[in-house]
What does this fold into?
Amino acid sequence: MEIKSVHLSIIKMPLKQPFMTHLGSVTDREAIIVEVKDRKGINGYGEGVAFSSPWYTEETVQTSYHVLKDFLIPLLKKKGVSHPDEAFGLFSSVRRNHMAKAALETALWDLQAKKEEIPLSSLIGGTMSEIPAGVVVGNPNLSEVLKQIESYLEQGFKRVKIKISPETDYQLISRIRQRFPDLPLMADANSAYSLRDADRLKALDDFGLLMIEQPLGFDDIVDHAKLQNQIKTPICLDESIVTFDDARKAVELSSCGVINIKIGRVGGIGEAKRIHDYCHSKGIPVWAGGMIEFGISRAHNIALASLAGFTIPGDISGSDRYWKEDIIQPEIKVDNGMIQIPDNPGIGFELNRKRMKEVTIFEERFEF
Ligand code: OSB
Ligand code: MG
It folds into this structure.
């Protein structure tokens, strides 16, 4: 791909409102923005979605930065790739660190699509021209939750996800159901339960949830299969699916009925697509997860979600869900609950340089 340079920027921006889960809350978001450039001057953007602390996965902004700077960028410089499909293989001498790998790999996909002068969604085989938007309520306060759901429904969102834990689950969901009986609703537990809570989770079967996401251990596949045997609500796995083989084993063991695919968690668009293709062939629906990310990562998610197997609205909302002003232009817009797949080359969004300048706290350039 004749890469000439890689530019890394660490940015930091406050969320409009803190995002809360039972594991803690996010008030400020840091991320790594990657810009690759080839010898013809064509560029590609990527975003590292690790958080500032390792509460969701092992990686952090600092560990991702270290792995990018000291291992992945040198590998790319030394050996190169002729297509982004080769990047995950090139990085195989580095174990895991998937968010760092995805940050660089997704930038190569954007660049490749721009080189071919086609949208990224077309390059990876996407078939949809628009996708339904879904939103996550990150607030455990009941009246606040009801108010927010009301406003999201007015904006046309097709599906709402709430965060639950054993402290809030039954009460919270039953009140939401009383008020919004037909709302396509799902719950994400971020590993707040253990198999001993099976009866508690079985009780939630009454509410017709679309699915319950990651009820048990963040690295578990076996107990989830035992739980799925005891509850009707389909289990969706998020944290447990880090590799293609995790997805295969989860499907073979019937540990879940649905999989949430996050590009960063699985190591890039190539791996995300492999997991999608496998699930599609097995009849397992998938949807695109979110990481409270900025517009670059959202744009990659939008392209990914244009693949035929993404049959459930993902955690893809507009730029204004979390940010006063995003780092891309135009910003991502939700119109009547739908997001248009851009038809210009690559991810279809440009960096907003003025906004980048305001939020960049560190940057460094690597010449090839
Ligand atoms: O578990 O899906 C999750 C946010 C950060 C880390 C993990 C998760 C989430 C979300 C929010 O649920 C998704 C979003 O709106 O970006
Ligand atoms: Mg989740």
Summary: The CA atoms of residues 59 and 97 lie 7 Å apart. The chain is about 35% helix and 25% strand. The first helix runs from residue 61 to 79. The first strand starts at residue 3 and ends at 21.
